[in-house]
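hey so i finally got around to running the thing on that chain from the lab meeting. sorry it took forever, my laptop kept dying and i had to restart like 3 times. anyway pasting the input first so we r on the same page abt which one it is
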Amino acid sequence: MLKSPKRVWTVRKPVENLISIADFAGKVAGSTVENPHKAYILTTANNIDIGELQSPNDSNWYEYIESHGFAKYSRIEKLDGTLSNPNVTANGKNAQTLFSFNLIEHVERKYGAIPASTVADKVAWLKANAYFFTFNWHGKGSAPNSTKSKLGYWNAVSNAWATGPSWERSGTTIQRTPIGFENIHIQHLIDANGFAHFIAFAEPSDGVTLSKIETDYVNLEVKLKDSVRMITDLLTGEKRFVI
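ok and heres what got predicted. didnt touch it at all, straight out
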């Protein structure tokens, strides 16, 4: 009887300064097979009374779908001037877009299996071994007497949106706005399910002029620590992290 070939593993470090990109390229609405990340909008179609920034788990978010004229994944998968542009007209309400990145799936698909069996342990591994994250949003906003766009991230420790003037831009052209995370801030970014959530929003409508937030492209840069090591099966090419 033929014996199965013995697995041969080799130890290696990830390439120094290797940065992987999480974005919405190839995303199929309603599926996480091709791409594990999701984007959502708030519209008057599902709740006209929304005014405050909604939490990532709020039921009022509506996932991007290709049949939706202004909220298609194909509009945000590359920087090409084709815009996703959700808007609201209700007085005092803001146009908002949510971007949720599945960091566990991203790291395992890009690099290899995380050495943990539970989601909680994988989250702990990510927090211990991530070097930095940079969220990049390319877009613009508009509202009555305003061309301002604003960004924020979900603080998984305080369970609240973190926003600030450093993540605001004004203008009528597409601009890149980054949010960077290193060291202790990474602990605040990754939630209990291994997700990182970001929001883009505009100033509120006055009931006549639209509040609109327009996105051309969005991504999350992911860099693991250079101390992270992996093993590779020389026969199958399978890769996994080692503790």
